Amino acid sequence: MKKEKIFLKTSFLSGILASCFGFCMAGMTGLSRGMYPMAVFVMIILIGLLLMGIAVRGAPDEKSPRISWKEIVMVLFLFINPLMAGILGFYFAAFLVIAGISWLITPVKTGKALAGVLGYSLLVTAGAFAVFTLGLKIVTPSGILF
């Protein structure tokens, strides 16, 4: 029986990244922001552990797909987001991350597509601000803008 390389499976790597992201966010926010964000981060950690478990128990003949550079950059955006949120503010950092990831997955890179990506990112960020800050009164990290 051929020994499989468990660390190269996409679901195992996704589980590691999800768990690390959950730990990173939980460590940065702590309980100072309330129970709601901490519960979300604990769920992200548990989902990551579940993905790792599924990969370990997966079929031995499963092929290991390649991970593209775009996927790596998107994951880096997610890890950089909490660091930027402390400096730039939660919503401005979220706008940059949403715009960056959206631009990466846009198939045709034109000026019109860029305007669409920026408009979409602004709409999502404004919607998040309206729901979380104005509606639910959740305190988010402030930065250079507000």
TrEMBL record:
Task: Show the coiled coil region(s).
Answer: none
Residue ranges crossing the lipid bilayer per the database entry? 12-32, 38-60, 72-105, 117-139
Describe the location of the DUF1468 domain by residue ranges.
21-141
> InterPro entries recorded for this chain?
DUF1468
Xref: Pfam families: TctB
Keywords from the named record: Membrane, Transmembrane, Transmembrane helix
Organism superkingdom: Bacteria
The name under which this protein is listed is Tripartite tricarboxylate transporter TctB family protein
Natural source organism: Enterocloster aldenensis
Lineage, please? Bacteria, Bacillati, Bacillota, Clostridia, Lachnospirales
